[in-house]
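pasting input
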Amino acid sequence: MAEPAREQKPKWRRRAESRPDEILDAALTIFERDGFDAARVEDIAKEAKLSKAGVYLYFDAKDAILRGLIEREVAPIARNLRAMAEAGVSDPKGALRMIIAGLTELAGDRRKFAVPRLVLSVASRYPDLAAFYRENVVDQGLGAAEMLVKAGVEQGVFRPCEPGVAARSLLGPIFIHGFYTHFLLGDRGPLEPAARIEAHTDILLNGLAARG
Amino acid sequence: MAEPAREQKPKWRRRAESRPDEILDAALTIFERDGFDAARVEDIAKEAKLSKAGVYLYFDAKDAILRGLIEREVAPIARNLRAMAEAGVSDPKGALRMIIAGLTELAGDRRKFAVPRLVLSVASRYPDLAAFYRENVVDQGLGAAEMLVKAGVEQGVFRPCEPGVAARSLLGPIFIHGFYTHFLLGDRGPLEPAARIEAHTDILLNGLAARG
DNA sequence: CAACAATAACTTACTCGTCAGTCATATACT
DNA sequence: AGTATATGACTGACGAGTAAGTTATTGTTG
């Protein structure tokens, strides 16, 4: 009758290596759904399949999880943009096209795109987090675009302009479009990256182009 | 010795007319500082100089206060943009210049600019609020720009393009710049509206312009 | 124009649920 | 045996919203 004590599987496993990433995965899911404040650490824990106390073995506090997400999800992308810019100074127009295309694709990824929104919404209460994000993400990305605009102007490909302003003009719309589509529309609006990339890039590069 | 009961002033006054506005003023101050979730209704009440229960005489719930702020602070601006666009179809370029200038000035107003950030951060939990904002603010503003681009294309002032994309390219950078300046930089970055307006408008309108 | 009733505007004090973070204890691994 | 990894149960504080009572104001009546 009674099953003999057969192969009772352990109540939990040691997974010290993989836990941080699992927690970040879970946190992103929950944060994306609820926002930072309304998200419960307990829900993140459940999603990551461990206990709440378990989460605190790997992250000191709730906001440390968000910092972890910045590090893992978006900082590498920004650094990559920077690298692309450095590699592309000889062809500013082409490099800018690539950067815009890359960012537009990113803007289609609702999960990744949730991170900037989270940072923005808590920035006033976590100034350190805001500074970290600014240095590692925003300034990298804007810097990349700025560098290319400057190079283009020097090479006579673009007409003279304020590189800082031009950089914002190039990248701003992509973010606004992402915010609008993912977080205000819900699901209703389709995001047609290819068409948008073309249209936006055309307008902007044409606007920057030196008159032939 | 003891002061006789002289002219004891009332413990409070009836101000049914002015209360809602006073509460909204206070709420904006507190929301801007703390964000929606971390803001306490009690703090809003104190700032507005009445009791917490008093606030609930005028607003059903915390999110109703935010809706009130949308109505009072930003919806009128969006409607105004729309009106400017309708009045300006005969001169799309000039009207767009005016719209960009107006929005850029708005982007310098940290108080007003806090509202979009608040909405964005709670949109996923308050879909009705998000819809209200979208219909009364975003769609009005984008619609205005779109209308003018379309008119410009038809009149041959602008070369053919997707009006929706162009509208975002025109307005997106302004918002991104506002978010960045007010909420990520703290206070460090100066906002030089005049110069920015010129530079941004130049790039974009030049990009849209029909080739002579 | 007092006195007083009726009501609108307001407050104090509370309830009730929530949740970040901790502590004592247990289990898996080496 | 010893330790790293995990858990369940707890604490302590907090905060949205409410109930019941209080005060200012308005109107009414003799």
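fyi The longest helix of chain A spans residues 127-154.
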